[in-house]
Amino acid sequence: MNEMGSIRLAVNGRTDIGQVRDENEDSIRWFAHPTLPFSYTVIADGMGGYTGGALASKIAVDTLGQQLETLMNPTFLSCTPDQQELMIKALLLDTVKQANQAILNAKLANPQFAHMGTTLVLALVWQDQVTIAHLGDSRAYLWDSQGLVQLTKDHSVVQDMIDSGALTEDQARTSDVRNHITRALGVMPDVEPSINNYQLTGNALLMLCSDGLTEYLDNSELEFVLATHRPALECCFRFIDDANQQGGKDNISVGIIEYTVGAQASVNHFPPPVSSSEPSDDITVRKERNP
Questions:
Q1: Beta strands at 129-135 and 120-126: parallel, antiparallel or unpaired
Q2: Cα–chain-centroid distance for residue 149?
Q3: Angle 74-78-79 (CA atoms, 0-180°, nearest 5)?
Q4: Is 248 within 8 Å of 210 (Cβ atoms)?
Q5: Per-residue pLDDT tens for 226-259?
């Protein structure tokens, strides 16, 4: 737990092999600064067969984590909020490229891993700002008292088909190509993550997961657990148990950052959530800035 002023952060994560796979190709890493309102969670879902997939995902989360944990330095802390936002985005872009190159280098050194790569999703909280970066179909969500918002759009074949009107959301969940992603780390020399910044306007939960969870739970089911299961950080365990009970065909990873503000800062004291069918556009304030 850390706090500065009235902002408090807590973080937890879990990865699980599931019920079918022989090995776990997911990796997860999280961090909360002991004294500053800074935290991150990163999840990577490796592909290309075990050892290869597991290596790619571990390279991704370790490269990101090692760099991000150097961010709270005197230079960064002396900058204005706008400058800090630019520095965070620049660091993420540079570090994702480093991770991509590290995976490519590992493939050259180990020809048996020629087909490895990994998805990536990361949430970084600094003060009341959250930056989300992702590649592939691992996802980030935000939940608060007004409901659930999916903060990422999958880089996948089925998402492209949904966008074009060729598939519905329900059809996509059972499509034969639902696991085909269009962006990943460690596949091409150039990599282009989607990076967006949001302002947190009150108590919130940020939840990241691999597709081993979203294969089984749709957004309304995710929202129900985040709204009702307490302590909030134990949703990580609840989600994995739910996915395993429904088959657990893939590895499952979940990370949660609990963001709370005020003298009695606790997501446990949220008012009852509104129905997921009601508008939730104001859950976050999208920062319309392109640094």
A1: antiparallel
A2: 13
A3: 125
A4: no
A5: 999 999 999 999 999 999 999 999 999 999 999 9
Closest by Cα among 42, 37, 20, 18 to 208:
42
Helices 235-245 and 219-228: crossing angle in degrees, nearest 10, is 140
Alpha carbon of 45 to those of 2, 25, 136, 226, 240: distances in Å?
28, 6, 9, 22, 15
| Amino acid letter for position 86 | L
By C-alpha distance, which of 237, 270, 280 is closest to 151? 280
**Dihedral in degrees, nearest 10, Cα atoms 233, 236, 241, 247:** 160
- Residue closest to 41 by CA, chosen among 107, 113, 130, 154: 130
End-to-end CA distance of the chain: give it in Å, rounded: 31
| Cα radius of gyration (the chain) | 18
Helix ranges (DSSP H) in the chain: 52-68, 74-77, 81-109, 157-164, 169-173, 211-214, 219-228, 235-245
Q: How far is CA 118 from CA 17, 104, 111, 252, in A?
A: 16, 11, 17, 14
Can you tell me the distance from the alpha carbon of 34 to that of 134, in angstroms, rounded to the nearest whole number?
26
The list of the chain residues with pLDDT below 50 reads 1-4, 264-291
Say what the pTM is: 0.87
